[in-house]
Amino acid sequence: MDANRLRFYMLADAQDWATESSVSAGEVCLYDAKRRTLRLGSLGETRTFDEALDLAVLEPRLARVPGAVDAFGTWAWWDDVAGQVRAAGGGAGTTLRFEPAQVGLSGAVTDLSPGAGGVLYLAVAQRVVALHLRKVWSAVVFPAEGIAAHRIAADPRGGAYVLSGPPSFAPNAPPAVLGRVDGQPLPDILSIPSGAGLFRPTEENPDPPRTRMLETLAWPGEVPVALACDTEGRLAVLSWVMDPALAGVPADAAYARLRFYTGRFSTPVALPGVLRPFSLAILPDGRAVVLSLLDDGKVEAVAYALPAGASEAIPQGDYFPLPGHDGGPFLQGAQPPHHAVTPGLADMAPVPLQALSLPRCAERGRAANPPNRPFDSGDGRTVWHRLYVEALLPPRTGVRVWLAATDAPLAPPSASPHWHEHRLGLIPEAPVHPDVRMGAGYRCRRRCRSNWGCCPRRRPRARVACSPSSSSAPTRRCVRSPDGTCGCGWSCSATAAGRPKWERCARMHRASPTWTTTCRPSIARSSSARTRTPPAGRLPRTSWSVSSASSRVC
Which of 303, 324, 357 is the last residue of a domain? Predict the structure, then answer.
């Protein structure tokens, strides 16, 4: 906050934060876009399974045809015996929805994926078929364009991604191909006039069915096995590392990988703990969940957080039970992901995937405003005056805030004396230094109020850290400035019982030689402080780091 012009600068949006996560260091900080807050992420131990690695056992799992479920709770599946796609859930019994002979194809369906506008995409005999569920137009077969369709992931914005297959694990097998289908035929009820004297367009349909090849998945040492789309249309491709040497990873870290496609593929993201997952889904909150087959025939669901730009996913501390699971892949379609149960989709409705949350959060987390987004007032006479932090901090949780001002639009090094620390809560592993500003505030909201004194420069920056406390009793501090003035407006005096008593302060604390006086009232849950003046510079910068139980900082 600029004291002279009372301008406010806020760090609350996704682009304002560059979060840092490290599984090995136990640090996970995530941005919650819905609440516009930072929070500690769920972090479970890297789980080890007695995972089935025999391809003779795994290939039948990969070959199973996923079902499909829509937003209304109805579902469809491929009946291999009857050679039909049937649906249920809208009433008693089942209904025939599709037969390959309707479009002149003969062969099995290998995937179903419901898309936007009531369209069901099917992979039939290595071709893609689109079926309108409300029968606005007849089923249509998309051009092949050299893609042997095996798996489909519908894009919620329209169209669908196609993965060729089935996957081959032979050493010299040709690489898989990723493609996309778009468009749809004209409605059947639309009459198109014709005649010699009429002027008509060359192509009547402005959005005809079409297929295009996107990428050849020539990833050394890897084989793509599954794909899924999130709610924003971002595609994720799951692959197995079959040759660690070619893939460039150690043999003991040849975990399954994810790549994301948004016009081009991202760098691979390893999934620690799993080697051969056979099904992939994206949860509504953006986490990935995979199914892995164990040696005893059971199936385990494992979820991972996917920090932006990370090379390794973060295993979550949530447990996903699979009651009655039939051993098959996730159904495609509605969120959250569903799975089939025994005896099958013809007799039982699919079950949504639900997590039993384990009380495991990362102990620490870090975030900073990006280097290219400092506060810049545009005026060298700016005086950066106060800092407010709104957060929900549970007991035994603390926040450390570092502020710095420089004369250039670059953040100073971490060890630079330009950084000045401020604290909220208790951080036992970091003893309090006399120069560190401590604060107190209100029970429901923590506010860190910082007085930067005279910092006549243009741009501020900051960093923050949060840590657990060894004591469950939070503290409230009466903060005094160097001239003895009470900064927070409250004073503490001992009662006859030795308990602290809070009183409104209307006098000067000239006799106090210290900056702060510490008390432990039972009502205090938050912190507020005046800060010391950072050195002259043009750029104050902010950085936050949170640890202990789940917390939110904005």
Answer: 357
* Cα 137 to Cα 123: distance, rounded to the nearest angstrom: 18
Sequence-distant (≥ 6) Cβ neighbours of residue 100 within 8 angstroms: 83, 106, 107, 109, 124, 125
Do both 338 and 464 map to the same domain? no
| Number of neighbours of residue 501 by Cβ within 10 angstroms | 13
Question: pLDDT (tens digit, 9 = 90+) per residue, 219-235?
Answer: 999 999 999 999 999 99
Instruction: Supply the DSSP symbol for 158.
Output: S
> What is the pLDDT confidence band of residue 441, given thresholds at 50, 70 and 90?
low
CA distances to 26, 40, 271, 328 from 356, in Å: 21, 18, 21, 21
Q: Are residues 283 and 160 in the same domain?
A: yes
pLDDT band of residue 57 (cuts 50, 70, 90) is very high
Mean pLDDT score across all residues of the chain: 77
**Domain total of the chain:** 2
**Which pLDDT tens digit goes with each residue over 348-371?**
999 999 988 665 777 788 888 887
Provide the domain limits for residue 412.
Answer: 1-41+361-554
**Per-residue pLDDT tens over the stretch 456-484:** 444 556 565 554 433 333 333 333 333 33
Q: What is the pLDDT of residue 15?
A: 85
221 lies in a domain?
yes
Domain boundary among 326, 341, 357: 357
- Is 441 in the same domain as 312? no
Assess whether 384 and 281 both reside in one domain.
Answer: no
Specify whether the CB–CB gap between 477 and 398 falls below 8 A: no
Burial class (CB in 10 A: 0-12, 13-18, 19+), 443: exposed
CATH number of the CATH domain containing 295? 2.120.10.30
Q: DSSP for 47-74?
A: ----B---HHHHHHHHHSPP-EE-TTS-
Residue 19 lies in a domain: yes
Bond from prior residue into 343 cis (ω within 30 degrees of 0): yes
DSSP-assigned letter for residue 243: -
Q: What is the pLDDT of residue 414?
A: 81
Q: Identify whether residues 102 and 184 lie together within a single domain.
A: yes
